[in-house]
Specification:
The chain has about 500 residues and is an alpha/beta fold. It contains 13 helices and 24 strands.
């Protein structure tokens, strides 16, 4: 049985002969942005001891000197003999939120779960006070089969649906068991929120409607289980509720965000924006709301960027101008390994100020790129393709906000508050986001609102009707591509402001 040793951690474990490394390395910090299809460099590792043959995919993504140094795509490796692999360890900061909430009076304990496509959070809640009794976080293990949702949809369609369902149910079951042990009262209710793809994969629903135009699910309502149905023996009798979606790719995480921000109770118009691979947007007030999702692409999460990575140890998370050059802030304080979404936005905003990036997105010096660190500190830089990826992402979001506002009979300027949901929204530099045209609002109107999905899931623990028919009736799903002006608006919004 081959033994695998990971450097620099020194972790060692045995694997069955011929076992794909992809099945075992995700938990140790290796990312698989393209789902293990050999299309990117995200899963790269360096062979320190042992032999791993060079594949055609390796030759396509690595220059000769990197192949000679031992770099390989781990998604193309199997354990045939003892191996020593070098991989950069990371720790990811997962956004939880333990602020106090006022809940309708109930007794007992509940668990609120934010099932994100990248991260998972479970909180045990005292239903009588709203207090957080315990929290556990983890990475979504489905990410080993693709960082973005459509890669996972494709994997599910090709025979992997049960695998994805079991991965997420088992991991959430582990978190539930751990937080339930932090309470002295049995768990009565568990609420789960997530995007539409997560809803379907967790619940074991047919994913096919989400794979093709018009991407409308046929079964996106409230789903009810018992813990025993899911194999969660520690909470076997608890009611498990996966909250309903709002339409298309707008899931129950956005429904929860509306609950958390009180958007459905506002007298004046506002917006909720969740910046991610599928950017979700809600615009409106108590008088009515429209919601939409837009395929922003994975740039905000670093997956489509040449040196991109998650917001984890070694990521450039912030960039500022210092003496006519760029100065990077690296998570963890060590050498830079790559750049995450917030660093990408900062870098391009700074590049615009210095004239290194033009308004049309062209780099002034394509050969040099946009250096974020010097060669001694790993030489992380953006190339022309990276700037284009950001333009595509920010154009989709800005166009979506504009069109939804127009559908509500509003101008963008009429929106009095813009709630930014999720980790990226919580850490993004609002001035930089305004500079590149991602959020065309005065900074004081933009409010980082934390993990609104988790907060809404907590509020749902004591709801009389967790199907929230009043919100679903108030919020109309709108397909942005059905608007005749969407393509023109999208193209216009890709340019950077002067």
């Amino acid at each position: 049985m081959p033994r695998l040793t990971l450097h620099p951690s020194g972790t060692s474990f045995d694997l069955p002969a011929g076992a794909p490394l992809q099945d075992h390395l995700f938990a140790h910090g290796v990312e698989f942005p393209c789902g293990g299809k050999g299309r990117c460099r995200g899963c790269r590792v360096r062979v320190v001891t042992g032999q791993v043959p060079v594949t055609e995919d390796d030759r396509r993504v690595f220059p000769a000197h990197e192949l000679d140094a031992g770099w390989r795509l781990s998604c193309r490796c199997t354990a045939e003999s003892d191996l020593g692999l070098e991989l950069a360890q990371w720790t990811a900061s997962i956004l939880s939120d333990d602020r106090a909430l006022e809940l309708p009076a109930r007794t007992g304990t509940g668990i609120a779960i934010d099932l994100g496509s990248t991260t998972l959070v479970a909180q045990a809640i005292d239903r009588s006070t709203g207090a957080v009794l315990g929290v556990r976080t983890a990475l979504n293990p489905q990410a080993q089969h693709g960082a973005d949702l459509m890669t996972r949809v494709d994997f599910a369609r090709n025979g992997g649906a049960d695998r994805l369902r079991d991965l997420i149910r088992n991991e959430l079951g582990r978190l539930v068991t751990e937080v339930a042990a932090m309470t002295s009262v049995p768990v009565q209710r568990i609420t789960v929120v997530g995007n539409t793809v997560m809803h379907h994969l967790f619940c074991g629903l047919d994913i096919l409607p989400l794979a093709f135009h018009p991407f409308e699910p046929t079964d996106d309502g409230l789903k009810t289980f018992r813990g025993s149905d899911l194999g969660w023996s520690s909470v076997a009798g608890a009611e498990v509720l996966f909250l309903p979606c709002l339409g298309g790719f707008v899931g129950s995480d956005i429904l929860a965000g509306i609950l958390a921000t009180g958007l459905h109770r506002r007298d004046t118009p506002a917006a909720l924006v969740d910046l991610g691979t599928n950017g979700e947007i809600v615009v409106g007030s108590a008088k009515g709301m429209r919601c939409a999702s837009t395929a922003a692409g994975p740039a905000f999460e670093g997956a489509s960027i040449s040196c991109g990575m998650r917001a984890a140890t070694g990521a450039v998370a912030g960039v500022e101008i210092s003496d006519g050059a760029l100065r990077a802030t690296v998570l963890g304080g060590g050498a830079a390994r790559g750049v995450c979404g917030s660093g990408l936005v900062d870098a391009v905003a700074a590049g615009l100020e210095l004239g290194w990036v033009r308004g049309n997105g062209r780099l002034a010096d394509p050969a040099r790129g946009l250096p974020l660190t010097d060669v001694a500190n790993s030489g992380v830089k953006l190339v022309q393709k990276d700037v284009r990826e950001l333009q595509l992402a920010k154009g989709a979001i800005a166009a979506g906000i504009s069109i939804l506002a127009a559908q509500q009979g509003l101008a963008v300027e009429d929106l009095e508050r813009i709630h930014l949901a999720g980790a990226f929204g919580n850490y993004i530099n609002r001035t930089a986001a305004h500079r590149i045209g991602l959020l065309p609002f005065p900074a004081e109107r933009v409010v980082p609102s934390g993990n609104t999905a988790l907060l809404g899931a907590r509020l749902a623990l004591n709801a009389d009707d967790p199907g929230f028919p009043e919100i679903r009736a108030l919020c109309q799903h709108f397909a942005l591509k059905s608007d005749p002006g969407f393509e023109d608006s999208y193209v216009d919004q890709m340019a950077f402001p002067a």
